[in-house]
Amino acid sequence: MIDFTPEQLQRYSRQIILKEIGIEGQAKLRRARVLIAGAGGLGSPAALYLAAAGVGAIDIVDSDVVEVSNLQRQIAHGTSDIGRAKAQSAAEAMLAVNPEIKVRPLQTRLRADNIMELVRGMDFVLDGTDNFPAKFLLNDACVLAGTPLSHGGVLGFAGQAMTILPGRSACYRCVFRRPPPPGAVSTCSEAGILGAVAGLLGTIQAAEAVKCITGAGVLLTDVLLRFDALTMDFRRIPLARQEDCPLCGKAPAITAPVDIPWPACPGAEQCP
Amino acid sequence: MNGGGRRPDAEKNLVGTGCPMNLVYAKFELAKLEQGQILRLIIDDGAPVDNVSRSLAGEGHLIMDREQLADGTWMLLVRKG
Q1: Residue A190: pLDDT band with limits 50, 70, 90
Q2: Among all residues of A, which ones are annotated catalytic?
Q3: Which superfamily does A32-270 belong to?
Q4: CB 3.0–4.6 Å: which of A81, A102, A204, B47 could bond A57 by disulfide?
Q5: Domain, as residue range, for B71
Q6: Is B27 left (phi over 0), alpha (psi -120 to 50) or beta?
Q7: With 50 as the cut, is the pLDDT of residue A271 above it?
Q8: Would you say residue A193 has pLDDT above 60?
Q9: What is the pLDDT of residues B49-63, one digit of tens each?
């Protein structure tokens, strides 16, 4: 269990010397299984940092292929990856950083009929998706499965993140009961997104994953962290698990994942 | 002076191993021990012995003994916290 080669000790030395990580934390990272949903703006930095940190097994799921407009922020992909499956491209970038971990690229959409299988057996799930149906699907599945989840989202210069420990801390539905009406909230292709802002948020999510796996520090539980990169203002909005939450409350109405109908927007092929 | 006569449960020679790998190896050896067991380290004078002993103490391990050897290196006896 505690057996690392000299090369591994060198590779992870800068986090092993952290009191909060140590050899024991590194062993936990090696044993951990993480699902990264989305290999885009959030999933890219998260995937690279979790691979670098030595998470032993990472599943990365994304149904899309790389497009030139992705390259402004989706740093797991390069110009030569245009046209390739994002999950595969990201997996290769992760293995280039750290060939010792296991990466499973999954080119599929998240749906009610596959989400529980994707989440099953994971120690942590990271929401790097770019649409509300997927965010609710991930939250619902993780709460039902009892799997810790980092929720995250970015738009423009702003980002938000919260970490969900099912049954213990507020879940996404405790805060947001249902998705907003389609079209009420812009997408990144409509309103824009700064690459570094996506990087900021995805990296926060990766740090939460490492902290949860190793037990280091205090997670973003019962808090919504929001930032505005235009001012670099960070604020924490306190949350609490709600007794009347339709998913994790006293009398849950939601007992299985559901696909939320979402109309394709005009020019949907351009949506990330 | 010598940890009450108790033999160490493990030993690691860190002479020539600079920072931070000397601390990494010390932590690696400690991780393989049970709480209360004793690790004997041989370590270079200067920043290495100072940094490693301070870091290990800061993580809750006890530096039971610290003795300079004839060649200028140091012997540390560390009890796992």
Answers
A1: confident
A2: 188
A3: NAD(P)-binding Rossmann-like Domain (3.40.50.720)
A4: A102
A5: 12-79
A6: alpha
A7: no
A8: yes
A9: 999 999 999 999 999
Mean pLDDT on B32-52: 97
Q: Which residues of A touch B16 (CB under 8 A)?
A: none
> Residue A16 and residue B25: Cβ atoms within 8 Å?
no
DSSP letters for A111-179: -TTTHHHHHTT-SEEEE--SSHHHHHHHHHHHHHHT--EEEEEEEBTEEEEEEE-TTTS--HHHH-SSP
Handedness of CA A114, A116, A122, A127 (dihedral sign): positive
Q: Check whether the bond before B20 is cis (ω within 30° of 0).
A: yes
**Among A42, A67, A38, A61, which Cα is nearest to A269's?**
A67
Please tell me if residue B55 touches chain A, with a CB cutoff of 8 Å.
yes
- Per the CB < 8 A criterion, the answer to whether B79 and B38 are in contact is yes
Mutation site for A-interface testing, chosen from B12, B14, B24, B29 by largest number of A Cβ within 10 Å: B24
| Beta carbons of B27 and A17 less than 8 Å apart | yes
Comparing alpha-carbon positions, the chain B residue that sits nearest to A17 is: B24
A101-159 tens-digit pLDDT: 999 999 999 999 999 999 999 999 999 999 999 999 999 999 999 999 999 999 999 99
A19–B32: do the CB atoms touch at under 8 Å? Answer: no
| Residue in B41, B21, B16 with CA at minimum distance from that of residue A4 | B21
Q: What is the mean pLDDT of residues A192-209?
A: 98
CA-CA distance, A22 to B11, in Å (whole number)? Answer: 19
Which residues does A212 contact at the CB level (< 8 Å), separation at least 6? A123, A124, A148, A163, A219
Phi, psi of A38 (to 5 degrees): 105, 125
**Residue A23 to residue B32: CA distance in whole angstroms:** 9
Q: Is residue B5 part of a domain?
A: no
Token digits for B5?
């006569």
CATH code for the domain in which residue B44 is found: 3.30.110.40
Q: Is the ipTM of this complex over 0.95?
A: no
- Residue appearing with tokens 């505005």: A228
